[in-house]
């Protein structure tokens, strides 16, 4: 993983408290099980493969996500209105330039997104602990319990300390609306090393990976109290999501 991708993933987490996929078009699904290695999610198996059923709580309404590097990124738009009144705007005259002046500069815009979740996370946690009891779950494993599905997204990350991306559009476009598919954005030219996804649909660029707390395993297998499994006695029968899981961060 490059230094630029590390900067991108850490900044995404700091802003949204969600992990980012790398590459941004990598497929992640609710119920995926794996580990985070060097900031990258490594898929190992799934709740379905392990015999743990779960229901999905789909996002009720669409939301947009947007984040641009605080420094090292400059965007300039060009539209027909900026041409002389007598000049007819051409497709090449309508678009946008993104200039990067440092490695790790990025633009992240995702529109019409839905945030889906595993519905009953406490029940899922209890099932995971039972799998651990019989040697079918590792302590370091995490599970994807929250996922962001995009309608469309534009994600641009610079691997170079100096890079430029020129985009053309069918209609005048604002720098804050680069993910809208109806803009007809296409790449006109590029200089430098850039990772780019332009108005790409159906990405899953953000997710939460949760891991059962070590203290929860201790409560089941000795030390610090008991919890309820299969009708067994419990000192923590009102367990919540927070008591079961820690959210995994890029570190």
Walk me through the topology.
Blueprint: H1 3-16, E1 19-20, E2 32-37, E3 40-46, E4 56-57, E5 63-68, E6 73-78, E7 95-100, E8 106-118, H2 121-133, E9 142-149, E10 152-158, E11 163-168, E12 186-191, E13 194-201, E14 206-212, H3 214-221, H4 241-244, E15 245-247
Short description:
Helices cover 16% and strands 37% of the residues.
Query: Could you state the oligomeric state of the chains shown?
Result: single chain
End-to-end Cα distance, whole Å, is 14 Å
Molecular shape:
elongated
Strand element count: 15
- The share of residues in helices is 10-25%
Please write the string of helix (H) and strand (E) elements.
HEEEEEEEEHEEEEEEHHE
Given as residue ranges, the uncertain stretches (5+ residues, pLDDT < 50) are: 81-91, 224-238
Share of β-strand residues:
35-45%
How would you sum up the major sheet? 11 strands, antiparallel
Mean pLDDT: 86
Whole-angstrom Rg: 22 Å
Number of domains: 1
Structural class call reads: alpha+beta
């Amino acid at each position: 993983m490059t230094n630029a991708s590390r900067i991108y993933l850490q900044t995404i987490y700091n802003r949204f408290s969600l992990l980012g996929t790398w590459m941004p078009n990598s497929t992640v699904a609710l119920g995926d099980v794996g580990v985070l290695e060097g900031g990258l999610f490594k898929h190992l198996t799934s709740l379905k493969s392990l015999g743990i059923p779960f229901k999905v709580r789909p996002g009720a309404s669409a939301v947009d996500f947007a984040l641009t590097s605080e420094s090292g990124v400059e965007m300039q738009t060009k539209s027909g209105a900026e041409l002389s009144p007598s000049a007819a705007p051409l497709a090449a005259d309508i678009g946008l330039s993104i200039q990067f002046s440092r490695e790790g500069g990025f633009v992240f815009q995702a529109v019409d997104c839905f945030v889906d979740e595993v519905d009953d996370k406490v029940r899922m946690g209890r099932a995971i602990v039972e799998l651990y009891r019989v040697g079918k779950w590792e302590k370091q494993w995490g599970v994807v319990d929250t996922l962001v599905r995009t309608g469309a997204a534009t994600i641009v990350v610079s691997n170079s300390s100096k890079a430029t991306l020129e985009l053309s559009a069918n209609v005048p476009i604002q720098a804050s609306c680069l993910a809208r598919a109806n803009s007809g954005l296409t790449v006109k030219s590029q200089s430098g090393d850039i990772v780019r996804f332009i108005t790409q649909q159906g990405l899953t660029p953000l997710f939460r990976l949760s891991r059962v707390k070590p203290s929860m395993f201790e409560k089941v297998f000795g030390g610090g109290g008991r919890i309820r499994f299969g009708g067994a006695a419990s000192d923590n029968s009102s367990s919540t999501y927070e008591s079961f899981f820690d959210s995994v961060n890029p570190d």
